Amino acid sequence: MREGQVFEKKSYRKAFGPTADLSDLAKTCVCLANAQGGLLLIGIEDRDEVPPIGQQLDPAEVHKLIQKLSTRAMNVSFASSELVVAPNGGEYLEVTISPSLHVVATTSDGRTYARLSDQCQPVSGEDLRRLVYEKTGLQWEIRPVPDVSRADLAPDEIRYFVDRVRSVGKVSAFVLAKSDPELLEYFRLVDAHGTATHLGVLWLGTPAQRARLSYGLLVQYVVYNQLEEKVRKETWFDHRLNPARLLEDVLAQAVELHYSHEIPWGTTRRLVPHYPPAVLRELLVNAFAHRLYTTATDVFIQAYPDRVEITSPGGLPLGVTPTTILHERMRRNPHLALTFEATGLMEGEGSGYDLIYQQLSREAKPLPELDDRGTSLRVTLPARRPNPDTLRLLDYLSAHYTFSQKETIVLGLLAQHRRLSATALSQALQLRQEERTRSWVGRLVDWNIVQTQGTRKGTEYVINPEVFAAADLQVKPTLKTIEPHHLRALLVEDLRAYPDSSLAEMHKRLGEELPLPVVQRAVYKLVEEGQLSATGANRNRRYALLAKKE
């Protein structure tokens, strides 16, 4: 089993013997408790699936270990600890750690850690406040609602939920084999005593029961005109609908979000939605699933002529930022998210923004803008009209190649910008290291769809001009895709006509659509090759052609 947010493996040497590091083990326990709880397997190496053959654990030493960890990991509940014998005969210790619902778990020296993806990270300052918010959200989901039992819930809502889970088929056969009452308990909609949880009332309750929730799922939809004056408003405050029905009703009522651009397409016209339906749906699902349910604030959808803004209570979950959201895998409301997956409202864990980026890139649309204010998250999606030539190019490529999700995103970005440096592409893809772009662009370069220019940090990616010709697109030429040797030839001709020019003057004459750093590198290369002379310093530096030696 691979390590993740709720699963960790530790070597035998980490817990027993002269190399034991109980402080590190305690830190791991704190991390799991501050997340969603989880399993700690002691006696299995990180890269192995089973313990070493013949490994034996002393029960007395195991008991001492748990006692020591209890004194080093504060506010951590060890639900169980069990010696397990693997099929190869080796033994390991399986420790189940409960989530710390009411307080923040710390080590005995007062340090706080949290599990972020598969890493244990220290928490302090602003992140500590976010951690407290995360805990209240987790507690809200599974907290029982007094005086509401399974029998009090709405039968039609129970039938809707159960039938939807079984028909969608997103869960395993083991889960599908459960009876209806067992299914409700499995998804934490009711507890072991048959009492409905907050999550259960949200999905299965009557309107009166949902209204009793301290913080329910309330939505406001507001439409503005060109002057940003409010022209229409719809609200969902009556608690009639479960999350799935609410989502469908909001999408049906928000007609302004379904407008389209008309784009000339040969002898006809093509309708391109302002917002791809799959993207719009995913953003609303995210607003419902990951909002903070312990604050009395509604989900706001504000539709402007040129954009839509979706604001949900609570910032991004701890460990996720606007510049890492494409890769980080964190949930604020894990049990609610599980019901959303089981009912087909959302894909698997962490796949939401991958889908959003893919759909927007395929439609030649700009990527969403995220504004994390800590207390709320606002996602802005521009309604910009896509370039027809860019759409035709993407259509042509999709008809002749089968691209992965990563490749579709890269193609969309390059088709819109024509040229991107390795640094700019890494930033757009939220990659920490530029070298990782290879897994995103590798096949595109191999297929000669994308060309590289420059080396190392100076590498730039452009769409191969021959692809435009093959697609029979009458694309207006642009200097953005000019090859380095052609650019240097243009600079030589420019300086022949305008000797002693500054870099800024040359850049202006060539056309400011060409990035200044590209011109700068070409000029430096000409100086290095001995074709240009440079006089002056910094902003006063000027360039001229060197006379050819006879």
Please outline what is shown here.
Helices cover 39% and strands 21% of the residues. It is built from 21 helices and 23 strands.
Describe the structure.
- With 550 residues, the protein is of the alpha+beta class.
- It has 21 helices and 23 strands.
- A hairpin with a 2-residue loop joins strand 15 and strand 16 (307-313).
- It starts with 6 loop residues before the first strand and ends in a 5-residue tail after the last strand.
- The mean pLDDT is 86.
Could you name the key traits of this structure?
single chain, 550 residues, alpha+beta, Methyltransferase, Cobalt-precorrin-4 Transmethylase, Domain 2, Heat Shock Protein 90, Arc Repressor Mutant, subunit A, 4 domains, four-stranded mixed sheet, 39% helix
Main sheet makeup: 6 strands, mixed
Distance between the termini: 72 Å
If helices are DSSP runs of H or I spanning 4 or more residues, what is the number of helices? Answer: 21
Q: What is the CATH topology classification name of the largest domain?
A: Heat Shock Protein 90
Helix content: 25-40%
Proportion of residues in β-strands = 15-25%
Largest sheet, spatial ordering of strands: 12-11-15-16-18-17
| SSE-based structural type | alpha+beta
